[in-house]
Structure formats: C-alpha cells, structure tokens
Amino acid sequence: MKSLLTLCCAILLIFEVNAQNIWIADNRPTAPSGSHIFADVASAITAASPGDIIHIIPSQTFYPDFTITKDSLTFFGIGFNPDKDQPNKTWVANVIIATGVFGTRISGLNVNDDLTIGNGDGSTGNIFIENGDIDRITTTTAGSPGKSLSNVVIRNCVIGFRETSLSQVINLTQETNPTSIVITNNVIMGSSTTSSGGYGSINVADAIIKNNLFLGDGSSDFAFNSVTTTTITNNIFYGRAPISDAVTGTLNNSTFTNNMSFSTGNDTFPIGSNGNTGSGNFEATDPQFVGVSVVDDWDFANDPSLSGGSAINGGNDGTDIGLTGGTIPFSITGTPLPTIRVLRLPEIIKQGDNVDATIEADGN
User: Fold this and answer.
1) Which residues, 6 or more positions from 174, have their beta carbon under 8 angstroms from its beta carbon?
2) What 8-state DSSP symbol labels residue 352?
3) What is the pTM of this model?
C-alpha cells in the first residue's frame, strides 16, 4: 500500500500548473463589479478553464448549490473558523464533483449537507478536499457498480458536525471501486445512533486513515462500518469506538498501528479477526486533551492539543497520535490562504519614493 507522503505528492502534482485566471464568486450586496466577478459559483465555473482558481468570498448568506464540471479547478473559501474581526464564512448547501472530472481542489469551503463525488457512470479522481466544515462526503448511488474513484485526499476538515440522517459521513464505497484514499488530520463525528447501533462514520476501501480524531458521546457511537484493506494509524477514538457488534458491517484485512481509544462503548481494537492485524495501540487510555469533551459534537472553542500522556510522540512516525501529529497537523482555523494580521506603512509617502512596508500574515 502506498505511503501517505507518496499519495499526497501524487495528488498535489495536479495543482502544479500555472493558473490562467482567478475568478471571484461574491454574493454580497456590496460586491464590486467586474468581468471576473460573479454572484454565484456556477457562473464562475462556466467562465473558468482547467488550471484556473475560483475564490468564493465569505458572506452572511449561502451560495447556491453548484456542480464542478471541468478538470483541474481550485476553489478557495476562508476556512471553518477564521481568526478575523468579521468571521463570516463561505457556505453552500451541496456541491457535486461531476463524473469524469479530475484534478479538483476544494479548500476552505464549508458544505452544510453533501459534497458528492460523481453523479453518473464513469471515473472520477485526483481530488483534494481540505480546511472545510463538511457534513458528508459521499459518492452517489446513481450509476452502475462499474464506477470508479481514485486518488482522494481529505485533510484538516471537521466532518459530520450536523449529521442526523442514517448514513455514514464519509461514504466512498457506494457503487464505486475506490483506490488510493487518504483521510488525515480530520475531526470525524457521525450519524445519530439508533436501537440497532447506528451507522458509523466511514465506508471506504484501499485507504490510509491517519491522525484523525473520531469523536462521539461514549455510548454506541462507532467509526467503521464497511472498511477493507485499509491502514489505520495514529488515530484517537474518543467516545467513538472503532467498530460495533450491533450492526451488520465489515472491517477486514486492515492494519491498526499506534491508535488510541478512550471512553468508548468498546475500547478494544479488532485485531486477530477477519484478517485484521496491528501493534502499538493504546486501549482505554486517556489522550489528555487540553479541551475536548466526550460528546458527539464539535465546538470551535475546543483545544485538541495534548497536555501530556502516551499520545505525545506516540505515533508510529515519532509524532503525536491524533490531530497534532502527522506531516501537517490540524489547524484550528482551517484558513487555507494567508490572512494579513499587520500592515505597516510610513505615515508620509512622497511621489516617486520607494515604500518600505511590513506585512505579517498567517494561514494554513
């Protein structure tokens, strides 16, 4: 199975092209006018060409749903918890990446309902999803089992925050043949549970699941419903068990290494059954978060950093187990582009003089 770094580098190669244009979607009443500015994202997509960037401006109102119909487009919002004076976000209810589209990057966009990959027969792939508050990432049930999905990275997102329906919050196996999926450094919750045990958080195959926080209420919440041939490494299961015996699901031929479970309905990792193997896991061990509660909910005031304990430098790569470890640790703002914090200019600028300016910014 490919390493996380190899997969991320392979997918990021699709973005190493010179963008031809930058387009703006701005639905605010005060939006400026211009040939490159549109009131909705769909119009910006119509104007764009492969390799272009679309900035979706933060707003107090939702943008209309849109479908991505062209290859190699990049979409930038402002993230899920921007650290700024007017914390408007970039929201849309539903987004579809059309079947046959490759090379999509979605960064800092918040999706209230579904981000759907594929809407018919065919192949879709080379997708990078990051820095968003997204309720569900799913493939459509339309089409035939011949559909395929490949090369997907999902990182630094808060997933399943509002999920109440009976489905997984990451479901990439509906009538597809998924390959090379990376799910890393996300907060992952799940559907509301039922008397039959709920629906879990994830359906996936041929994946790397690394440095995530699976968050639940400590009762019957669980993470994996249908997972196969997957590497599960350096995750924290906090109030959300890896699996549940109360549902008809499958977890097989997967490897668990250096994960941690605490205060779940079942703190035991399913090693030694159904072809599952593993080592270095910490069962029923408190990760000692600075500020996260055992609850199936996320508060953006939470602090998922570690105050001590076995999770610090406890990962199989020598970094922390959970969100603060891995190649790119979780950002509590999810801001994909630099935000200017300080801009210093001289009080008097003479015509023709050079200007010495100081700019300080941060971003993820």
Assistant:
1) 138, 139, 140, 141, 203
2) T
3) 0.88
